[in-house]
Design brief:
mainly alpha; TolA/TonB C-terminal domain; 2 domains; three-stranded antiparallel beta sheet; two-stranded antiparallel sheet; 5 strands; rod-shaped
């Protein structure tokens, strides 16, 4: 914490605090040297890229620069008391003292205050770089550069900021490239899914057309047989009690002739895992030809295709029958078909 006596015209930091600041400055410089040794690429970075990384930040805002010397000195003292050493922008001791130095370059108290504040600004700059807040790092760097353009830490800080911006830009570009590749992959998956669904629907439509054709052929055959039977002459001397036995008529009227038997929908999860199986379903056909009830007799694998098979069977339609008929069918599921 910086303490300034109101009556003093030369705000200074305590000796202990200044010693701490110097030690922190030495540590920061040592860290800079270590970073330079560990990052040879940073030391050889393209100067053009360094210059183009970001626009130079203004050390002193226009509002602060427009203040007179007395107002600047009072504002700087208040900023020190309130521990606004280098932030926020436009309202901190560093900016006030820099603007005051522009107006009174020979004032030793201003030069001393700026010297005392440099180590703290350096530490704050390093911290901003560490959290990749490069705009704030640029602002703090501008304060330090205006305070002491030949400070030993400045070249390394400038290079570190530039390299950090480049790394963030590269990482952002890589993430965008990954996002584009993922979008392309999703588009390919969607296209493949649509192709598979189209093929499955075409196969289902083919099966439905075949079933409907078979049903029409069976109906036409039945009508021809009925017409042929009606064209035959009746027996000359039929027995008075002779009537058609119910059994043959029952057999004919209870034959299940499919009208519409849509294929079951392949469960998406099973289709994605390319799983196959079969389900045997027992169902009852009412006199109107609709399925009145259905149950799974057995399935392999269990419960994977049961629901799809029952939903399909419940939609089946047959020609009307004389009485309810119970039947069993085995429905196969093959992802390759």
């Amino acid at each position: 914490m910086l303490n300034v006596k109101p009556e003093s015209r030369r705000p200074r930091l305590s000796a202990v605090v200044r010693a701490t600041a110097v030690l922190a400055l030495l540590c920061a410089l040592a860290a800079c040297k270590k970073d330079a040794a560990e990052d040879p690429a940073a030391a050889t970075a393209d100067p053009a890229a360094t210059t183009a990384a970001a626009e130079p930040a203004e050390a002193v805002s226009a509002e602060v620069a427009a203040m007179d010397a007395d107002a600047l000195r009072e504002a700087a003292s208040a900023a020190l008391r309130e521990q606004r050493l280098y932030a926020p922008a436009g309202n901190n001791a560093m900016e006030y003292y820099l603007a005051l130095r522009d107006k009174q370059p020979t004032d030793p108290s201003v030069v001393s205050a700026l010297t005392d504040l440099m180590p703290y600004t350096l530490i704050a700059t390093e911290q901003s770089i560490g959290r990749e807040d490069f705009d704030e790092a640029e602002r703090l760097f501008a304060l330090m550069e205006k305070t002491k353009p030949d400070a030993p830490a400045l070249p390394r800080l400038r290079q570190t900021i530039t390299n950090g911006r480049q790394q963030v830009a590269s990482r952002t570009a890589a993430e965008e490239a990954r996002s584009e590749r993922e979008a392309e992959r999703q588009a390919e998956v969607q296209a493949a899914r649509e192709r598979e669904q189209q093929a499955a629907q075409q196969e289902a439509a083919r099966q439905l057309a075949t079933q409907q054709a078979a049903a029409r052929a069976a109906e036409e055959q039945r009508q021809r047989e009925a017409a042929a039977a009606a064209a035959q002459p009746e027996p000359a001397q039929p027995a008075p009690t002779q009537t058609p036995t119910p059994a043959p008529a029952r057999t004919a009227n209870t034959e299940l002739i499919p009208v519409s038997t849509p294929a079951p929908r392949f469960p998406p999860e099973a289709y994605r895992s390319r799983q196959s199986g079969e389900v045997q379903v027992e169902f009852v056909v009412g006199t109107d030809g609709s399925v009145t009830s259905a149950r799974v007799v057995r399935s392999n694998p269990r419960r994977v295709f049961d629901r799809a098979a029952l939903e399909a069977v419940n939609q089946w339609r047959f020609q009307p029958v004389a009485e309810p008929v119970t039947s069993r069918r085995t429905i196969g599921f093959d992802p390759e078909r």
